[in-house]
Amino acid sequence: MPDAESKTRLRAEAALAAFAVLPFILGLLNLRALSRAPHPARSTEEGVSVLIPARNETSQIKAALEAVLANGSLVREIIVLDDNSSDDTIIKAREVGDPRIRIVSGKPLPPGWCGKSHACAQLARHARQDWLLFLDADVRLAPGAVSRLLAVVNEQKAISLVSGVPHQETHSFFEWLLLPFINVLLFGYLPLPLDKGRTASLAAACGQLVLVKAQAYREAGGHEAIRSRLHDGLALARSLRQHGFCTRLVDATDLAHCRMYRSASQVYAGLMKNAVEGLAGPVSLPIWTALLAGGHILPFFLRASPLIWIARIASIALRLLVALRCRQGLLTVLLSPLGTLLLLSIQFHARLRHMTGRPVTWKGRLYET
C-alpha cells in the first residue's frame, strides 16, 4: 500500500499531467474554432480605409504600402499617420506614389494616452470608408487578404470586428524562442469553442491586423475608449463586445506576415512593455506561473514516471501542433521548456518593475510596465 509521500507525489504528478494534457486537448479543438478566412464567393462593393500608424518606420513603410496596394480596388484609401518620426518615414511613403495614399501629421501625445492608440484615433477621424483596417507598419498583407477579411464579415453579417495574428517571422534566437508563444497561448488556453462572439471576457484580437466596421467603432468610442491600453487590439475587441457588437478571431497565418522585433533587446523590451496587461497582472501572474511552469517546465526536470511522460508528450505535442499550423520552426518546439522559463522570467521582471515604478522605453516613449 503506498505511503503518504507516494500519494503526495502521485497527486503532484497527476496535476502536472493535467496542466499539459488539457491545453493540448483545447488546442485540438481550437484547430477548428480558429479557422482561416475564406476566399470570397462573390465580389463586394464595400470599401476599406487602411490605416497605418508610423513612427520611425523608414525601413518598413514602403514595403507595407506596396503590399496593401497589391490588394486591389477594395482598398479605397490608405492613410499613413506620421507619429512624430525623426527619420525618413514620410519620404519613403511618398515614394510609393499612389493617389490612394494620404499622409497626415500626428499631434503631440496627450497625457494618459498610449502612443499607438492616439495615432489610431487620429487615423480613424480621417477615414471615409465603411470599414477600417488598422495595420502595423511592419505587417505585410498577402494579395487577397482584404477581400478574405471582408468575406468573414459577409458570411456572418453580425460581425463588426475581425482580427488575427499574422505569421510571425523569427530569425534571431530570442525571436524564435519567445514569439511563438503568441499562438501557443491562443490555441492552448483560449476556449474558442465556447465563444459566440459577444462575451467580453472571451474576446481576443491582435492589434497588428484589425478590420472593424466604422460605425461600430465610433459607437463604441473607438481608440479613445481604450486610450491607455497597450494591448490595443484585445482592448478594442472587448470594448466593442461591451457595447453589444460581435467580434471574431481568425487564423491569419496566410493573410499576412510580420517581423515584429529585430534584436534580442527589442524582443525583451516589447514583451516587457505588454506584460502587466497580459500575463503579469497581480492575480494572473500566479495563475499563469502554475499553468505554464506546471505543464511545460517541471515535467522536463523531474524524474520520469508514467504521468510525467504523459505531461512531457502532451506539452511537446501542443507545441508541435501550433508550430505546424502557424508555420513555426521545430527548434522552438524542442526548446519549449527553456522558452517557457524565459517567458515567465520576463513576466516576473515586468511585475517587479511595475511595483517599483520603473517604466520601459519603446520607440522613444516611456511606458509603465
Question: Would you give an account of this structure?
Answer:
There is one protein chain. The radius of gyration is 21 Å and the shape is globular. Helices cover 47% and strands 15% of the residues. It has a seven-stranded mixed sheet, sandwiched between helices. A three-stranded mixed sheet has the order 5-10-7. It is an alpha/beta fold and 369 residues long. Strand 11 and strand 12 form a beta hairpin. 44% of the residues are buried. Helix 1 packs across helix 11 and helix 10 crosses helix 14.
> What percentage of the residues does DSSP assign to strands (E)?
15-25%
Radius of gyration: 21 Å
Query: Which assembly state applies to the chains in this document?
Result: single chain
- Average pLDDT level: 93
Count all strands and give the number.
Answer: 12
Strand order of the largest sheet: 3-2-1-4-8-6-9
